[in-house]
Amino acid sequence: MREFEINLEPLSANATLVRVVGWLDAHTFEFMEQTINNLYGKGMVRLAIDLSEVEYISSAGAGVFIGSLSGAHERGGNIVLMNPTEPVKEVFDMLGLSQVFTFADSKKAAAAALASAK
Amino acid sequence: MAPLHVSDRIEVEAKTQNLQKVREFLHAAIKRSALPTGDINKVVLAVDEAVANTIQHGYHGREDGTVEVQIEADAGKFTVRIIDSGDPYDSAKGVAGKADLDLKNHIAAGSKRGLGLFIMRKVMDEVSYQSRDGSKNVLTLTKYIKAPGA
Predict the structure, then answer these.
(1) pLDDT tens digits for chain A (118 residues)?
(2) How far apart are CA A70 and CA A25, in angstroms?
(3) Chain B: nearest CA to A29, how far in angstroms?
């Protein structure tokens, strides 16, 4: 099984799809954080993050999204989360993040949500 | 009928790459216990947070130490002890201080601190910490098991 992997691909003219695979824990969160910061550094601030292959997330992983969301807003962008698995959704619910983030169930819906980012 | 008493332990080097090994050990131990299936992921998460805190704050990223996770479970409760020889990490103070963490404002401010402790307290029924000079630090997490139909 793949421990952790991130793949990037264009979602639309100004948005990026970030596919995450594996465990997002206190060991792997820095790689996730670094990836998002690198994207911000290149001016890519509209991100759809596909969580459909993330089997586990801890507070370290969730914390990356909390910090990155405010970072995206500061830069006029946004983050949309796609298709979290049940264990991931459970942690988001526990931390009240399900009310904070925008969720989408398809690339089309994510692109539409990101197009309206200010 | 599943045996109700479970006693097991694992000791790993204080490296975050060992967290998955600890989670797998916990999954297996919990399945042998009387803890309801619906609590498995939550208890694994709470213990993962505790072990990660120990590695990151107790050992400050030093990888020469070890973390021991002990499990004792019976029909009434599931107890996990996390034992380390790192610097005492003042979890006791944190446990008391973060009891009323205003999560919504915390998150709105983009802050990530204290989330692990929040999860530990939310999931487990008891969280206690003991550190003695020159001895080991012990963080104890307990989840009570309700009798079916109770």
Answers:
(1) 568 999 999 999 999 999 999 999 999 999 999 999 999 999 999 999 999 999 999 999 999 999 999 999 999 999 999 999 999 999 999 998 998 899 999 999 999 999 986 5
(2) 20
(3) 11
> What is the pTM for the complete model shown?
0.91
Give the right CATH number for B6-144 from 3.30.565.10, 3.40.720.10, 1.10.10.10, 3.40.50.10490: 3.30.565.10
* Location of structure tokens 């983050």: A79
Domains of chain A: 5-113 (3.30.750.24)
Chain B positions touching chain A (beta carbons under 8 Å): 16-17, 19-20, 23, 41-42, 45, 48-49, 52, 55-56, 103-104, 107-112, 115-116, 118-119, 122-123
Cα separation of B150 and B133, whole Å?
42
The domain spans of chain B are 6-144
Q: How far is CA B23 from the centre of its chain?
A: 11
Question: Which residues of chain A have a CB within 8 Å of the CB of B112?
Answer: 59-60, 62-64, 66-67
Measured between beta carbons, the chain A residues lying within 8 angstroms of B123 are 94
Q: Enter the tokens of residue B141.
A: 């997490």
Chain B residue closest to A86 (CA)? B41
Rounded to 5°, angle at Cα B48 from B45 and B52: 140
Q: Can you tell me the ipTM of this complex?
A: 0.92
